[in-house]
Design a protein that fits this description.
Elements (H helix, E strand, L loop, with lengths): L1 H19 L13 E4 L2 E6 H16 L5 H17 L3 E2 L2 E2 L2 E3 L11 E2 H17 L3 H13 L6 E4 L2 E9 L12 E6 L6 H7 L5 H8 L6 E4 L2 E4 L21 E2 L6 H18 L16 E2 L6 E2 L15 E2 H5 L6 H14 L4 E2 L2 E2 L2 E3 L6 E2 L5 H16 L1 H7 L2 H10 L2 E2 L3
Antiparallel strand pairs: 1-2, 2-5, 3-4, 6-8, 7-8, 8-9, 10-11, 12-20, 13-14, 15-18, 16-17, 18-19
């Protein structure tokens, strides 16, 4: 019962985070935008804004936020996304000025960050029975020119990763323009769903089958892995899409894949417990997020190169494992709350901690996408709310049909 209370406090804290760190000034062009992190309150993240739109759904359902207030916030946020936020062919700039909604410096127009935002848009449109919200959601989804970032290489149909028109802009190497490509299994699965209703069906299916299914093993069981093994990669698409109920067209079980990746990540941390004081059976999670060295990305096998453990535990990523390995995650929740009180603050758990450095380091920061992912996964564990809302939407149902996803047993 106490663990349930902690999870409910975590959800309430997460909602309060979004209420505190989202621009809710009704006279601002940046209304509805959420900060990238509490380290810089002037810069918004378009991806964090997508998690925020899902937060209002959770807030209403749990009675933390009045329905009318959530409607008002959601409507005006979608207007902001349509009218004020910098975009290129429907793809939003990754970072934005909190007050104006304009592109931050020379950041890229990002496919994955746009997709994370649009997952929140889809969720809002499906949950709120409001004509304006549903129309705005449809406009934002249909504005994205997916064909702009589709290309063929070595017989495979792929997405570009980003676009930046500026010389010396973020991620630009050489001439400005397209940046990298989604050729690996990673967090981008949501993009295939969002594109499927808007491109040719055959193209949609080729895209979905275009990324590699590199396979490693944990205790003899196969895992389709991401190159660096960061835990969050197995969670961002799965936060919204109900992989517990749906298998992909080839019968791939992405839910079990995330479960095995979580177990492998925990095992990796435990294997390095003698080197790093932070790691043990109830303290694990190698991922991306805050660290003693600033924003850092770490991971665990299986992956391409053996990752270097560094003692940082990304709390949000471990917490996001609740639907996949509930008992082990609850044990960590209990341990952190009672034995590591500095990991808890006014908005629930902080981002990370590391006891292997001197002095011991505890994050005092929160990242919108991190807090958002753990919030959604806690809610899915408790009620399946976001899974059910997003996956049952007409837009996603059409996408699943185009791509050939099917319910288990069918």
């Amino acid at each position: 019962m106490e663990q349930l209370n902690i999870l409910q406090d975590e959800l309430k804290g997460s909602l309060n985070f979004f209420l505190k760190y989202t621009n809710l000034d009704p006279n601002s062009h940046g209304f509805g935008l959420t900060v990238d992190s509490t380290k810089n309150l002037n810069v918004a993240s378009i991806a964090a804004t997508g998690f925020c739109l899902s937060a209002w759904v959770i807030g209403v359902e749990r009675g933390y936020l009045k329905h009318l207030r959530a409607l008002e916030i959601t409507r005006q946020t979608l207007r902001t996304l349509r009218d004020s936020v910098s975009h290129h062919r429907g793809f939003f700039a990754h970072y934005l000025d909190m007050t104006s909604g304009t592109r931050h410096r020379k950041c890229e127009y990002s496919t994955i960050d746009t997709a994370l935002c649009l997952n929140g848009v889809i969720t809002a449109g499906a949950y709120f029975k409001d004509t304006e919200i549903q129309e705005l959601a449809q406009q934002l989804l249909e504005r994205v020119d997916w064909n702009f970032i589709i290309f063929e290489r070595d017989g495979k149909t792929l997405f570009r990763m980003a676009y930046n028109p500026d010389k010396h802009g973020d991620y630009v190497q050489g001439e400005p323009g397209y940046i990298f490509q989604w050729e690996m299994a990673a967090e981008q699965k949501m993009m295939y769903l969002q594109a499927a209703p808007l491109v040719e069906p055959e193209t949609a299916r080729h895209l979905y089958h275009g990324f590699a299914r590199d396979t490693g093993y944990f205790e003899g069981q196969p895992i389709i892995f991401t190159p660096g093994g960061a835990l969050f990669v197995y969670q961002f698409s799965e936060a919204w899409l109900d992989t517990q109920q749906y298998l992909d067209p080839d019968g791939i079980d992405w839910f079990n894949n995330a479960r095995l990746a979580a177990l492998a990540n925990r095992s990796f941390c435990m294997q390095h417990a003698s080197e790093f004081k932070t790691y043990h059976a109830n303290s694990w999670g190698a991922s991306a997020g805050d660290s003693p060295w600033g924003y850092d990305v770490s991971g665990a096998p299986p992956c391409f190169a053996e990752p270097r453990a560094n003692g940082t535990v990304s709390i949000y990523s471990a917490l996001s494992c609740l639907p996949f390995i509930p008992n082990l995650t609850l044990e960590m929740v209990d341990y952190l709350y009672h034995s590591q009180p500095r990991t808890w603050g006014p908005y629930g758990f902080y981002d990370a901690y590391n006891l292997a450095v001197s002095p011991a380091w505890y994050s005092s920061a929160l990242y919108g996408i991190d807090k958002g992912c753990s919030m959604i996964m806690v809610e899915n564990y408790l009620s399946r709310l976001i899974w059910d809302t997003y996956t049952s939407s007409a837009y996603i149902q059409k996408a699943l049909n185009v791509l050939g996803f099917h319910k288990r047993g069918e």
